[in-house]
Design a protein that fits this description.
457 residues; alpha+beta; Transposase Inhibitor Protein From Tn5, Chain A, domain 1; Transferase Inhibitor Protein From Tn5, Chain A, domain2; 3 domains; eleven-stranded mixed beta sheet; 14 helices; 11 strands; globular
């Protein structure tokens, strides 16, 4: 049956996601992941293309030997290999929930979410990004789970951290340390949910640092709170940051922030205080329509002894937007994971992990669209795909210089320009740069053209 699933001469080696104790099963898994990358949809029927392949893919997702954690490990291995030769990477982590309010009956085996009465699942990846060039390299781990029915009401009870969902922040950081070994330094970045006192105790070492946005106004060893210390120190400089829009909350704007930084020592039980640095950023520029000004307090294990280093910490923190965009790609305007008709939680957990890896490919195009980095398009496209990209580029270019692809042929920026044009972007510098949904639509259109082009050969 396997031979009928693979097109003649089709190579799936680049999409290997585990051996699963069965060579045939492993090849079907690789083909499934390849189709997911090509068609950019989570619809099993569309990915299969015919009944036999659709059944094989569905059985693969439900096979007892196909474990989400094993696929996550394989993705991490590929990411580690891609990081070879790099000095410093960021591990940006966050959680997203996927809900199914219109599929309550189909999703009855799923767990509760943050939306009352709605079933769904949670995904928590660690996204690896080059700290120097902002390359999106892959994932160090991807956790997917369904909450138990009684867990939501117990979240605030006093329990050991190992028994709380919040342990995911620590486990993801530890997985980055374990899985990403080809770099000299890792900085793990998390938003306010990751402000867990144990993370500062368990994660940092000589090559592993933290940047955590403070959620709690903790006591210092001087018996004053963080806010009291920050209030009485002088502003050290200013920092301008481009804030992306958040639907229903704020418009995109350039904000000017007043920077303060200072060493601190957090109280930790009866043990020695935790020595950290604090970077404060308060918005001092006018905010539109009464929007709340930005107010960030970042706790880090990096030594911050200059305005330059404080700005670097803030810059790395703003790169959190990358993971938010990856989540956006996975949702209803992108891969449409929340439209999935899959009724088995385990199947959807496997699919969600592979969806993260697929969304990373799209985000790589977004991040490299401006041509500031010289990454080769061959990192994401095959030789045959590059040939078609060149042909498509010739067709899309206009007669004037403003209508031509301005980037070096076969660079990632050059490829991003072509894909964005296919996605509906007009290509003029005066327009807003193409975002992840435009890139996804462009990739979907390109893959359709590529399939037809292969048939024509």
């Amino acid at each position: 049956m396997l031979d009928t699933l693979l097109r003649s001469g089709e190579d799936v080696s680049a999409f290997w996601i585990g051996d699963f104790k069965d060579t045939r099963l492993a090849r079907i898994g690789a083909l499934f992941f390849k189709r997911l990358h090509e068609k950019l949809t989570v619809c099993i029927k569309s990915l299969g293309g015919d009944r036999a392949t659709e059944v094989a893919f569905s059985r693969f997702l439900g096979n007892e030997n196909v474990r989400p954690e094993d696929i996550s490990e394989e993705i991490a291995k590929k990411t580690n290999d891609a990081c070879a030769g790099m000095v410093h990477v960021l591990c940006i982590q966050d959680t997203v929930q996927f809900t199914y309010p219109t599929q309550a009956t189909k999703k009855e085996d799923f767990g509760p979410t943050g939306d009352a009465g709605t079933k769904g699942l949670f995904i928590h990846p660690g996204i690896i990004v080059d700290a120097q060039n902002r390359y999106v390299m892959g994932a160090s781990s991807i956790i997917s789970w369904c909450r138990e029915e009684n867990a939501e009401g117990e979240l605030k009870k006093s329990r050991p951290i190992e028994e709380k969902e919040s342990i995911r922040w620590i486990n993801t950081a530890l997985s980055a340390k374990k899985n990403i070994t080809h770099v000299d330094m890792i900085t793990v970045i998390g938003d306010r949910e990751s402000d867990i006192i144990e993370i500062f105790k368990r994660v940092p070492d000589a090559r592993t640092h933290l940047i955590v946005r403070a959620s709690h106004d903790r006591f210092l060893d001087t018996d004053e709170k963080i806010s009291e210390l920050v209030e009485r120190i002088e502003t050290a400089g200013e920092y301008k940051v481009e804030l992306p829009a958040i639907t229903g909350k704020r418009k995109a704007r350039c904000a000017t922030l007043a920077i303060k930084y200072t060493p601190i020592a957090l109280k930790y039980k009866e043990e020695e205080p935790l020595e950290l640095f604090c970077v404060s950023a308060q918005e001092i520029s006018p905010t539109p329509n009464g929007e709340s000004p930005i107010s960030w307090v970042l706790l880090t294990t990096h030594v911050v002894n200059s305005v330059k280093m404080a700005k670097q910490i803030l810059t790395w923190y703003t790169w959190r937007w990358i993971i938010e965009q990856i989540f956006r790609i996975m949702k209803n305007k992108g891969l449409k994971l929340e439209d999935s008709q899959i009724e088995d939680p385990k199947k959807l957990q496997v699919l969600s992990i592979l969806s993260v890896a697929t969304a990373i490919k799209i985000m790589s195009l977004v991040e490299l669209r401006d041509g500031k980095n010289n990454r080769d398009a061959a990192d994401l496209f095959t030789k045959e795909e590059l040939i078609l990209l060149f042909l498509v580029c010739k067709k899309l270019q206009g007669r004037t210089e403003k209508q031509k692809n301005p980037y070096v042929k076969n660079s990632m920026a050059w490829a991003s320009w072509v894909i964005a044009r296919l996605g509906g972007w007009n290509g003029y510098g005066s327009e807003s740069p193409p975002g992840p949904i435009v890139m996804l639509r462009g990739m979907q259109k390109f893959e359709l053209q590529y399939e037809g082009w292969l048939l024509a050969q």
